[in-house]
Amino acid sequence: MLSYLYKLVQGFKREHGCAPNAVYLNESHYQQLVESLPGFVDKDQITQFLAMEVIVSCQMMHPDVALLAAASRSSLSA
Which parts of the chain are beta strand (E)? Predict the structure, then answer.
């Protein structure tokens, strides 16, 4: 899962000229990510490690990355 996310991030950087700050995953992909990061016990640690907000949505068929504005990101944690 980490290598797939890395490829998404690199593609986003090439296309947009900046790094994404959010990753969208469904529950299954999130569990795969957790399993690939032994020692990380909660979502906050994973968020810090990835330097991206982690958004779990049942509507996501495939992982995706995005650049969220600061106002949008603060509403996610509320």
Answer: 22-25, 53-56, 64-66
